């Protein structure tokens, strides 16, 4: 059974001190011996790698042959099943997060109403001025028959030399 109690700190430090001291002593005794051992390990690993490489290449190709259809199947699932659901989820979330739009119909209706009122006002002013001009040209009272239009004056009231004479 494994104990979950911590060991006393002094006991850990003494073990660490012993290991460090052993490493220092081994380094003092013979660094050349360690270099030789490292060189032997390197050569052994190199020869093992040369022997294992063909078998490893063969196994890698077998794994690639097995994994390619699995990857295609996963890609089809992502394209047809997962991606549309993720897209729908993100779109719904965007609609929920987006702030509500201001309604511009109230302002547009107000501007249209102001345009109509302005147009009616301009038409009223034009009609009033035309009526005033008409009353002035027709005259009222005793001189109603004497008033003539500018067109009739140029045709009938013009002299030979081109001057227009008023009947008054």
Can you put this structure into words, describing what you see?
It is built from four helices and no strands. It is mainly α. The longest helix has 67 residues, at 31-97. The protein starts with 8 loop residues before the first helix and ends in a 12-residue tail after the last helix. Residues 136-168 are annotated as: Disordered. Residues 136-145 have a biased composition (Basic and acidic residues). Keywords: Membrane, Transmembrane, Transmembrane helix. The chain crosses the membrane at residues 109-127.
Short description:
The chain has helices at residues 9-29, 31-97, 105-138, 150-156. With 168 residues, it is mainly α.
Overall mean pLDDT score?
76
Give the oligomeric state.
single chain
What is the element string, with H for helices and E for strands? HHHH
For the termini, the CA-CA separation is 138 Å
Residue fraction in strands: under 5%
| Structural class label | mainly alpha
Rg, Å, rounded = 54 Å
Q: How many H/I helices?
A: 4
> Any idea what the shape is?
rod-shaped
How can the largest sheet be summarized? Answer: none
């Amino acid at each position: 059974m494994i104990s979950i109690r911590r060991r006393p700190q002094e006991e850990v430090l003494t073990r660490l001190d012993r290991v460090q001291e052993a490493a220092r002593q081994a380094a003092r005794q013979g660094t050349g011996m360690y270099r030789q051992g490292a060189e032997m390990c390197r050569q052994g690993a190199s020869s093992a790698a040369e022997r294992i490489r063909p078998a490893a290449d063969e196994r890698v190709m077998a794994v690639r042959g097995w994994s390619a259809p699995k990857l295609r199947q996963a890609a089809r699932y992502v394209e047809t099943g997962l991606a549309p659901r993720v897209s729908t989820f993100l779109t719904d979330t965007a609609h929920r997060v987006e702030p509500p739009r201001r309604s511009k119909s109230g302002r547009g209706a107000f501007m249209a109403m102001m345009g109509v009122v302005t147009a009616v006002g301009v038409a009223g002013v034009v009609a009033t001025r035309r009526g005033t001009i008409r009353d002035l040209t027709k005259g009222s009272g005793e001189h109603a028959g004497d008033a003539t239009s500018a067109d009739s004056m140029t045709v009938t009231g013009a002299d030979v030399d081109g001057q227009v004479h008023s009947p008054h």
